[in-house]
Design brief:
This protein is α+β, with helices and mostly antiparallel strands. It has helices spanning about 35-45, 65-80; strands at about 5-10, 20-25, 25-30, 35, 55. A three-stranded antiparallel sheet has the order 1-2-3, with helices on one face.
Length: about 80
């Protein structure tokens, strides 16, 4: 797995913070705050939440970082498709 750092929450203390990565094997890796029980219940209303999955939260102020991750993933897909 080649993990590429994309960005960190710009309003963080740089110690405990949401972070976005792209795994060059084909996945996004998101580090965020664990969801509380109420949010997990809201997610479960849309479908099951298996034990091996988690709900995490990241702030909307990271939208540009998520876009950058999508662009990096898109570029990787285009390179490997040729």
């Amino acid at each position: 797995m080649a993990l590429r750092f994309i960005g960190i929450d710009p309003d963080t203390d740089k110690d405990h913070c949401p972070t976005v990565f792209v795994d060059e094997d084909g996945e996004f890796v998101i580090q965020g705050w664990r969801a509380d029980a109420q949010l997990e219940e809201q997610v479960r209303a849309a479908g099951p939440l298996p034990d091996h999955e988690a709900v995490v939260r990241i702030p909307m102020r990271m939208v540009n970082i998520l876009r950058e991750a999508c662009d990096a993933a898109d570029a990787h897909v285009q390179r490997t498709a040729c």
